[in-house]
Amino acid sequence: MNSVTNDKVIQLSHGGGGKEMNRLIKDIFFNAFDNAILQNEEDAAVLHFDGNIAFTTDSFTVAPIFFAGGDIGKLAVAGTVNDLAMMGAEPQYLSCSVIIEEGFEIEKLKTIVASMARELKKSNTRIVCGDTKVVPKGCADGLFINTSGVGRILKPKISVKNLEAGDCIIVSRDIGRHGAAILMAREGLALESELSSDCANLWPIVEQLIAANVDIHAMRDATRGGLSAVLNEWAKASNVCIEVKEEAVPVSDEVKGLCELYGFEPFDLANEGTFIVAVPDDNAEKALSVMQQFCHCQSASIIGQVTADKVTADSNNAKENSQQGKVILHTPWGSARYLDVPQGELLPRIC
User: Fold this and answer.
1) Pairing with 37, which of 4, 68, 106, 242 sits 20 to 30 Å away (CA)?
2) Where in the chain is the domain with CATH 3.30.1330.10?
3) Please, where in the chain does CATH 3.90.650.10 lie?
């Protein structure tokens, strides 16, 4: 490998703790994530909090690394920020650890880190510590990222166990975009209309819901397993029945087309900038109004309701007994069926 090539790709020496590693960290990571805490260069960041905090961690191995609507860097920051936001916590500090394969292009790394920096600004969040490891070629698929995050809880008591009979279920936008975009990228499909991932930072929207004093019982971003997984988790955790009107769930034509082509259900496809919220019936219109005023939530919709015990679905599709812990999907044709948790792995490495 000549010297020109050496300057353009990651080498094992970039993970060796010497001059090359120091230059990589300073020129790329410190330059993009610059803040006073990070610049201290201590073994651990010293943080200051007042009150309860939320803490989360996630690892990102998405393939391909670049996709319509985002990349692994944007996904890592948005995904971790969103996990905090779903607990009513204001995202404040993130860690960032990267595992880079020998031979990975430095320009691609710069692009990914710049994407992360842009996403951080959307929630005024800082990366305050991190780690870099380089592994030999063939030991990783380009780049893996782990991010952990902490945030100050502004809206306490948001929980999967807090759903009550009468709560309205609201989805923030059309579903299944991220899973469909990843599928399209892997299969090399070209569509007449541009389909992109919904990958987005949700804190600005959640912050507005909190500021409007919306009574939020539960909130969750519908990532792996999609809408189906979230609703089933809620139904079981709160021991309630959730009834959903299929025609009320927003799905784009592009996602519908891909699902028909591959035999998938849009309810099962992953999202990375779409969330589900459960609020009391008398708060539903206010929540919907707030959500529809902010980015990418124009298609926010009330899709269903939490119902009391012993709700009976269509007699041909469900037994007439307790429906606690179940999700019932009502079709436009007047029938009903259980909306089950997805089986198996539809699309591995979607995040």
Assistant:
1) 106
2) 3-153
3) 168-338
Place of tokens 């800082």: 126
The band of 291, judged by pLDDT with boundaries at 50, 70 and 90, is very high
Query: CB–CB of 72/199 below 8 Å?
Result: no
Q: Which residues contact 119 (CB under 8 A, 6 or more apart)?
A: 73, 74, 77, 78, 81, 201
Q: Which two tokens stand for residue 298?
A: 């124009």
**Per DSSP, which regions of the chain are E strands?**
53-60, 66-67, 70-71, 89-101, 126-135, 143-153, 168-171, 218-221, 241-245, 275-279, 301-307, 327-330, 336-338
Q: Which residues of 309-343 are buried (b: 16+ CB within 10 A; e: fewer)?
A: eebebeeeebeeeebbebbbbbeeeeebbebeebe
Q: CATH number of the domain at 168-338, please?
A: 3.90.650.10
The whole-number pLDDT of residue 266 equals: 95
pLDDT tens readout for residues 212-248: 999 999 999 999 999 999 999 999 999 999 999 999 9
